[in-house]
Amino acid sequence: MNHARIAVFALLFLVTFFWHPIRPLRGFSAIWLVVYTGSEFISRLHLRWAFLENLLGNTPFVRQMQPEQFGKFALALVMIAVLLALGYSRRKIYLTPGQLDAPITPVKWMGFPKPDSWWWFGGQFGFYIPLTMGVVIWMMSRPAPELWAEVLPALPAILLFAAMNAFYEEMTYRASMLATLEPFTGMKHAWAMSALYFGMAHFYGVPYGWIGVTLAAFNGWLLGKAMLETRGMLWAWWMHFLQDIAIFIFLAMGALTPGGG
Question: Which residue of 51, 52, 132, 189 lies most exposed, with the fewest beta carbons within 10 A?
Fold first, then answer.
């Protein structure tokens, strides 16, 4: 499947040099070309480091996540380098904390009819979403009580991998898509496309299936809102980080696997 995607985005990237109307898609096609070719390349590398695995506990969770998350982090750094090389500034790709006290665009159906500060809005939803995620995963997995004993020793690994995964996904599904699509489609369409793609990408994630897609799409909408309104990554990364902690707790205790396997 990746080979077909690589071919499509390679062709799109080349066409942007010859067909003026789609030239604004050059950055978008370049990023996804990097994502899919980079994923293929990194999967062939041996990024498993025994000293780090031992330091983090050398559990099955650590042995699976250490090469995966370090590979993703490396890919995120490559994406940043490509975007900068294409002429995007750090601010344009949201590689800045942003205005942390920026006013939100009111969302009446979520109980925020006024332009409250992101400190108030993000502070609340940074708590609500991980809590909801944790409850949904608990209901799907129903871990045995004794498995909770696995969490505390794994906490350093959980925090490290959650931070890395949140950065990779914010860079891939949010910052790069918004930066490269907004000039071509406009803000609202770029926002909607990034949220939809984020949702579909989690069909085999945690939670999995259409429940996972729905939750991830809403989450993608919310995190996109954070990035666009603050013009930075910190709020989006922080809320994503807290959610990943909730998910990785259940992965660390072996209560479930991505895709429901």
Answer: 51
Q: Is 24 helix (H, G, I), strand (E, B) or coil?
A: helix
Tokens read off for 111: 């109980």
Q: How much is the pTM?
A: 0.89
Residues with Cβ within 8 Å of 117's Cβ and at least 6 positions away in sequence, in order, are: 101, 102, 103, 104
Residue 75 lies inside a defined structural domain of this protein: no
CA-to-CA separations, 107 to 14, 110, 193, 242, 250, in angstroms, rounded? 41, 6, 20, 22, 32
State the Cα–Cα distance between residues 129 and 127, nearest whole angstrom.
6
Determine, yes or no, domain membership for 223: yes
Specify the number of domains making up the chain. 1
Tell me the C-alpha distance between 219 and 217, whole Å.
5
Mapping DSSP to helix (H, G, I), strand (E, B) and coil, where does residue 95 land?
A: coil
Residue type, 94: Y
Within-domain flag for 140: yes
Give how far Cα 123 sits from Cα of 80, 221, 229, 250, Å: 28, 17, 15, 23
Q: Which pLDDT score is estimated for 256?
A: 58
Residue 202 structural domain: 95-260
Residues in the chain where the model's pLDDT stays below 70: 1, 205-207, 255-261
- Whether 234 maps to a domain, the answer reads yes
